[in-house]
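Wed. Picked up where I left off yesterday with MBL fold metallo-hydrolase. The coffee machine is broken again, so keeping this brief.
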Amino acid sequence: MKVTFLGTGTSQGIPVIGSEHPVCLSENPKDKRLRVSVLVEWDGCNILIDCGPDFRAQMLANNVKHLDAILFTHEHNDHTAGLDDIRPFFFRQGDIPVFAHQRVLESLRKRFDYIFTSENKYPGAPGVIENQIENKEFSFREHKILPVDFKHNRLQVFGFRMKDFAYLTDLKSIEEEEVEKLEGLEVLVVNALRIEPHHSHFNLEEALEFIEEVKPKRAYLTHISHLLGFHDEVEARLPENVFLAYDNLKITL
Ligand SMILES: [Zn+2]
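Structure written out below (tokens, as returned):
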């Protein structure tokens, strides 16, 4: 399994438009962060988690040739706004399977009605195959995927475990029985927004406490704001098995 971090930034990305914050002005490529998404290549199957506003640039940057499925964590724009840009994949492959909570599918149907409609469909519009998921294991082709359920302030969000890899973003609170699904991980990815607390995201301290509890072999932090600080300075202070993810980082498991 190979995982590519397509984007590791919070909702506005880094740099923030018009910002003079030193992190936004940094010339280190690791301080430039598109909106969060990962591509999981699993035995030749390309599974995308979230399809945000930077999707097109991310596919081009990583020369992605086919897309087998999209899993959505939740409906917020930084995780969904790129859905129209699946068109090149749709033209080559046909309808693209999407997996999401019923509430998220409803939101997507409203915002991308021309994609989800079957009547009088514009010939250039992309198509999807809807797969409603609940908080229980599901399969895509021969792959078993386990949702992990948690809260982003009061909004329900799904993370996903695939074998010994788990990806949890926009997490603020989680029940103990959901944490138990994360036993024995090789790699945990979890969000760490900034140093100061936030109402709907883990800050750095909360993310590190969570990693302590889950005890993966290694952990990567994502959904990062410019307010977390410079990549190299923050990473130098992290525990030995914890890393800051950065855009286009590839890891194998
Ligand atoms: Zn988000």
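Quick read: Residues 2-252 form a domain with the Metallo-beta-lactamase; Chain A fold (CATH 3.60.15.10).
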